């Protein structure tokens, strides 16, 4: 299946992979132990990049070296994966991350086969970092995320049958426009949008669409579908950067949902090498805020021990080091409560679209 990626990008990605494999052979030829260095992917190795306003990896490095049996196996798996990816690009084919895991079982060297999908996923991330090529340009796809958008946006997408123009209200059903794996193949043609509203849950997304919030306020509603996929974060960044649209993120009021906002705005720890590509640092958090729980007396659940631990961890997370987040997190630890987006329905089905969001957007200067 063709991926509709320009041939020059495919060739560049293939060359970078081949160059990486060649480095291992050069190390062998020089009598050196082959090794590959990558940034340490931990919270303690995340630092703020003032030039791009996103969080990126720091200077700490981890080494994948053949000086141990375990390290040698990792490099062997990397070589086999590089060969597979290079062949895939040469044939203009694509595969999923899940398929890569199963494909390895057919490799002739048993030691090169992956033990589980987490291992193959991590290796693809390693190759992204050291080659500076995204997995999308490797023609590697995740399983379908199902994330969608709905709003006054006219775009052109590439399909196997050629280009197709789509209006993301008039030409789609109630489910909206499904975001493709590689949003860089989309061309934005026109829009009447005022801002982008990223929504965590499907229930809230459906409420906004049913109430016509996208029409009434010129809103592009992006359904994050929980922790957002890379494609969802990429199209959100493009909507902000290329169409100059403000981005606000609307989630549940709990520590795990705050991390959903953090991944949209600042990037995630595991993909910090792609923060410039995926993160939208100007994105603002609209709610549910802990202060909303108090102000609107929302129905709540008690914080669990894991919730409390997560909130305390966020107090030291570099992505949440602002006065706003410290105040909100400390308030939540004090009241020991959390609330879902749909808890706003306790004040009526239209409260979220008629009152809560307009008032919050106005206070934030978005409307």
Automatic annotation (TrEMBL):
PROSITE patterns according to UniProt: TOPO_IIB (PS52041)
Residue ranges of domain Spo11/DNA topoisomerase VI subunit A N-terminal in the record: 73-139
Keyword field: ATP-binding, DNA-binding, Isomerase, Magnesium, Metal-binding, Nucleotide-binding, Topoisomerase
GO MF terms held by the record: ATP binding; DNA binding; DNA topoisomerase type II (double strand cut, ATP-hydrolyzing) activity; magnesium ion binding
Binding sites annotated in the UniProt record for Mg(2+): 200, 252
Protein name: Type 2 DNA topoisomerase 6 subunit A
Record bears the keyword Phosphoprotein: no
InterPro entries membership: Spo11/TopoVI_A, Spo11/TopoVI_A_N, Spo11/TopoVI_A_sf, Topo_VI_alpha, TopoVI_A, TOPRIM_Topo6A/Spo11, WH-like_DNA-bd_sf
Lineage: Archaea, Methanobacteriati, Methanobacteriota, Stenosarchaea group, Halobacteria
Organism in which the protein naturally occurs: Halococcus saccharolyticus DSM 5350
Cofactor: Mg(2+)
Keyword Magnesium among UniProt keywords: yes
One GO term of the biological process aspect: DNA replication
Gene: top6A
Domain Topoisomerase 6 subunit A/Spo11 TOPRIM as annotated: residue spans: 195-361
Domain of life: Archaea
């Amino acid at each position: 299946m063709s991926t509709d990626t320009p041939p020059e990008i495919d060739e560049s990605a293939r060359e970078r992979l081949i160059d990486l494999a060649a480095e291992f052979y050069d190390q062998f030829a020089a009598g050196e132990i082959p090794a590959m260095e990558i940034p340490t992917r931990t919270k303690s190795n995340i630092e703020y990049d003032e030039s791009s306003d996103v969080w990126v990896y720091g200077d700490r490095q981890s080494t994948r070296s053949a000086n141990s049996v375990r390290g040698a196996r990792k490099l062997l798996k990397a070589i086999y994966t590089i060969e597979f990816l290079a062949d895939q690009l040469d044939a203009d084919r694509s595969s999923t991350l899940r398929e890569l895991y199963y494909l390895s079982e057919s490799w002739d060297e048993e030691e090169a086969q992956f033990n589980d999908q987490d291992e193959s996923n991590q290796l693809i991330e390693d190759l992204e970092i050291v080659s500076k090529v995204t997995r999308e340009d490797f023609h590697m796809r995740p399983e379908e995320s199902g994330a969608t958008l709905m709003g006054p946006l006219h775009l052109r997408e590439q399909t196997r049958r050629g280009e197709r123009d789509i209006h993301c209200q008039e030409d789609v059903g109630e489910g909206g426009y499904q975001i493709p794996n590689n949003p860089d193949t989309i061309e934005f043609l026109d829009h009447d949008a005022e801002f982008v509203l990223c929504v965590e849950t499907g229930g809230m997304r459906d409420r906004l669409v049913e109430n016509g919030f996208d029409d009434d306020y010129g809103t592009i509603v992006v359904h994050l579908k929980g922790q957002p996929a890379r494609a969802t974060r990429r199209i959100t960044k493009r909507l902000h950067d290329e169409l100059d649209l403000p981005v606000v993120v609307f989630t549940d009021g709990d520590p795990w949902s705050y991390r959903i906002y953090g991944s949209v705005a600042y990037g995630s720890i595991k993909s910090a090498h792609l923060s410039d590509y995926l993160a939208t640092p100007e994105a603002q958090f609209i709610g549910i805020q802990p202060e909303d729980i108090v102000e609107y007396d929302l129905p709540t659940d008690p914080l669990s021990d894991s919730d409390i631990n997560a909130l305390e961890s966020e107090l030291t997370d570099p992505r949440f080091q602002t006065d706003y987040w410290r105040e909100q997190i400390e308030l939540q630890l004090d009241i020991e409560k959390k609330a879902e987006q749909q808890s706003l329905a306790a004040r009526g089905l239209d409260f979220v679209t008629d009152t809560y969001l307009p008032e919050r957007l106005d206070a934030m200067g978005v409307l």
